[in-house]
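Attaching the record inline, Q. Sequence:
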Amino acid sequence: MKYIQIAVLLVGFAFLTSCNDELTIEPVGLLTEEQVNATPTLTAVENAVSSSYLMLSNTLNIMGNWNWSEGLVSNNDVILQDVESDDMQKGWISNSDQPWMDEVDNFTFTSTNGGGNGVWKYNYEGIKRTNVALNFLLNPEIETITGITTQRKNQLLGEAYFLRSFYYFTLVNNFGDVPLILAPVKTYQEAFDKAVRAPKAEVWKQINTDLALAKGLMPNSKFSSQTENWRVSKGAVIALQAKSALYNQNWSEVISLVSELEGLGFYKLNANYFDNFSTQTEFTDNEVIFSFDHQSNVVPPRGNGQCALIGWGFFAPTTNFINSFEPNDPRKLYTVNVSEQWANKLLGTTNGGNKGNDQSPSNKVFIRMADVMLWKAEALNETGDYTGAITIINQIRTRARNTITADGSLVPAGTLPNRALSIDKTVIKNWLISERRAELGFENQRMLDLKRWGIAKEVMTANGKNFQDKNMLYPIPQSEIDASAGLLTQNPDY
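Structure, as predicted:
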């Protein structure tokens, strides 16, 4: 039986809504009878898992050929989480290039905007790939058929479960209720049956189920593979469990999971802040827990295409973001060089290297220890351990002020002084909000933070943006609703 790996729901019902002649076109992702009936090889199994990572990348044109209008040229996390926020604007000069990004920035976007469309398609394509991999790996005969060892099978299973949970984490936070698809879709009828939004509580339950399964399968080491350090590790699994708990305000669970992660002894703050992003320290630093391994000049392409977009003038800071840094904070210049008009953190360099390079080797960092520690600080503050929360905030500030600046100078004495002891929960929360902004700027965290804190409308309004209550979620792409013959429903007020 042919497998339809959906390509608009899971990326593609579009062929079902076309004219009669187009109904004969095979859907994207359709496997041939030969492929379905073929005995899987070890290479096929390995490739199924490895390909599941690719949708996390910033590599250009994975989903099409310069399809800007549908948001498919590159992963759109930076647009929805940074450009839409008060941290970033589309580019260094105002122009008419890619107006759909301006619509995201000024909250005039609709259900046809490329921002939400791209995020939907990238993540469901990732889910499609992980489901294919899991379908192979959960075959009880897979070891006999392919010769894969039990240890390797378990590791790959753990990676696939993590990746599926990661993709659903993005979807549920951006869209709310979403279709929950846990296996390859085998028939046209199945495809339509799956075009129904599952309640977000059900999606969160599945995320946590997948992560629990992954955790029990991963080796107890910093890297799950000593030759492929980019693969999902046990630390990454525990960290995403903690982030899931954070987004659901399960404070005691956040504290427990972060403490468990700390107990592994694999991660700590880098002495130098920029070691998290430099192309010179990838996979040798102490802090990064999960990142995508961009590589230059390999086939198929695996470079960081966002660096090319920087060469075209994209991704500039807002004045508000620049002014939000405390005096002499070295993190400001490590994030963005205003005078030279480039984002150091995205380039992986401080001298403009990789600017304009669509095959840049600079990794995309998803989870690092400073971020995780600030989750714990937030949970401690929420549960009344104010001293514990302030201690962590001061650890982050201490690392920052002890970091040599991007221009090689020492930070002046008195920079980023420790926060004083306080028992005022609101004061500490505001310190935490400020610290996360300085520490994690341009790392695709800001807008989701503002939304989960319940202050997105307040902050955006103060920045002159017309944020409405409906903007807490993005609209389901209209093409998906149309293609499902209305089975997919729209978010309110879109």
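The two ends are 38 Å apart (CA to CA). The first strand starts at residue 88 and ends at 91.

More tomorrow.
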